[in-house]
Amino acid sequence: MQIRLTWINTRRRKIIAIIIDFWISILLYNYLYFLDLNSYPNKVVIISIGSFWVILSYILGRYKKEKSISVQSFLISLFKVFALIIFGIFIYAFINWFSSIILFDQLFIEQKDLLLKDIFIKSITNIGFLSLICQSLINILNYKIYDKKNLWIFYGKEQEYNKFLQELNYHSNHPEINFISASEPLKINKSKNLKGIIVNENDILKLDNLDNLYNIKLSGIEVINLIDWFDKEYHRIPTDFIESNYQLIKKLKSIEDNYHNRIKRLGDIFVSLIIILITLPVIFMVSCLIYLEDKGPIFYTQTRSGLNGKIIKIIKFRSMKVDAENDGIQWAKTNDKRITRIGRILRALRIDELPQLFCVLFGSMSLIGPRPERPEIEKKLFKKVPYYKSRYILKPGISGWAQVNYHYGASVADTKQKLSYDIYYISNFSFFLDLLIFFKTIKLVLNAKGYKPKKFIIDNNPNTN
Fold first, then answer.
1. Element (H, E) at 327
2. What angle do CA 372, 378, 382 make, to 5 degrees?
3. Which of 49, 68, 83, 406 is the most exposed place for a label (fewest CB within 10 A)?
4. Stretch(es) of the chain classified as CATH 3.40.50
């Protein structure tokens, strides 16, 4: 099985930070436990503490790259660590004391429990502040050393350069880009902050240009084409820079990888069943609330396009009024009056998507993949969005790379942006990338982000010409 992990390149700092935090957690707890009890704790407990710390740290954004090093950023980091310590103590107390009292197993705290409580509080406090010091050092080193190389040179035609800058506007934080025309010989001065040369392959076909770039590459400076640069830096492939179907075919990963598909399918079934069992009380409560609000149907079914363009049916909790589509099919918009009161909460927490887990079990969808769209909307998108059908190469998912990296799509422009992430996912999909998307989805749900369209979007109606 071929595994491409290009998305790891720009996350090396984050991965290293997570690994360091995990080992700090398990080693420090192990050491303090042995110091007080002269024995070692259960391995499951150690791994659980380490996993708890890094997962909650990731959700709180402790591993994000700091844009600047300041007193304010340090205080924010300190607050996050303090919140983790308090939350960890609360979880420990609930598991070891409150749950026992509720179940009437024990009404009094034993001396051994008090000792374990002291060890845990001492451990998680030390873990917190040692983690804070290590993460701060990582941020300072990253900022002082690696982030200094942030200059790129775009070598090509001015028209392509302007289109390139327009595409970069979708990213709030992008590196400095200088322009050199491909009609001129490429002469550069090596500077400390020069990271590499971006080229559009069709603009540099002259032999002199290729020889120059070859020599620059040999001198140790990175030379990368436009599509690969977006792939590497932003983990997306904009369709406006794809010149031909053949160029896209080279990027798309073959789905004839049966070993990977079997793992993905088993994972879909296993995880879906677990989530359904855990959320059964939520499903029941939400069903009651939807019915009580307007006495309408609880569930809402839609036809969508699935694998290879085959029409499938998906099921969701109804979050809009019964007559929401009397005026025709349209995308949701900011402050959409069609959404019910309970529907706004369901959408914010993505609970309306829960019934789609049954679609995953039946095999028409996957947990992770490009989000399926309505065929009525797609008829218009085919004409306006190049290479849109490439999404059909994989089974659609409840969540996907586009969903965790881009806000709710409510326009043709949004669809083009989300397609760029879908194409990246299709060309790099693997178990590890699916795992990353799964955790990023949990983070989005807990932060209640990404479910609203941006306010500046105006083309809500997909049926407009």
1. none
2. 125
3. 68
4. 149-234
Phi, psi of 349, deg, nearest 5: -95, 5
How many Å apart are CA 118 and CA 124, to the nearest integer? Answer: 10
Q: Token pair of 177, please?
A: 């880009």
Average pLDDT, the chain: 80
Neighbouring C-alpha atoms within 13 Å toward the C-beta of 83 = 12
Out of 8-22, 65-79, 110-124, 371-385, which region has the weakest mean confidence (pLDDT)? 110-124
Contact 433, 399 (CB under 8 A): no
pLDDT at residue 460, as a whole number:
47
Q: What is the mean pLDDT of residues 60-81?
A: 81
How far are the Cα atoms of 215, 216, 325 from residue 196, in angstroms, in the given order? 13, 9, 51
222-225 and 194-199 beta bridge pairing: parallel
pLDDT in tens, 415-428: 899 999 999 998 88
Long-range contacts of 142-145 (CB under 8 A, 24+ apart): 142/13, 142/65, 142/66, 143/66, 143/68, 143/69
Mean pLDDT calculated for residue range 89-115: 57
What is the pTM (predicted TM-score) of this model? 0.75
Residues in contact with 370: Cβ distance below 8 Å, sequence separation at least 6, in sequence order:
391, 394, 396, 397, 400, 402, 422, 425, 426
Q: Which of 373, 455, 456, 375 lies closest to 415, judged by CA?
A: 373
- The C-alpha atoms of residue 16 and residue 31 are separated, in whole angstroms, by 22
Task: Phi first, then psi: give them for residue 260, nearest 5 degrees.
Answer: -65, -40
Is 167 in contact with 238 (CB distance < 8 Å)?
Answer: yes
DSSP assignments along 328-370, one per residue: ------TT-TTB-HHHHHHHHTTGGGTTHHHHHHHTS-EEESP
Neighbour-count burial of 169, counting CB atoms closer than 10 A to its CB (0-12 exposed, 13-18 middle, 19+ buried): exposed
**Mean pLDDT in residue range 3-16:** 65
Do the Cβ atoms of 324 and 338 come closer than 8 Å?
Answer: yes
Q: Are 155 and 96 in contact, with CB atoms under 8 Å apart?
A: no
Split at pLDDT 50, 70, 90, the class of 334 is low
Which residues, in sequence order, are CB contacts of 48 under 8 Å at separation 6+?
none
- Rounded to 5 degrees, φ, ψ at 104 are 60, 25
- Decide: residue 110, CB within 10 A, 0-12 exposed, 13-18 middle, 19+ buried: exposed
149-234: in CATH 3.40.50: yes
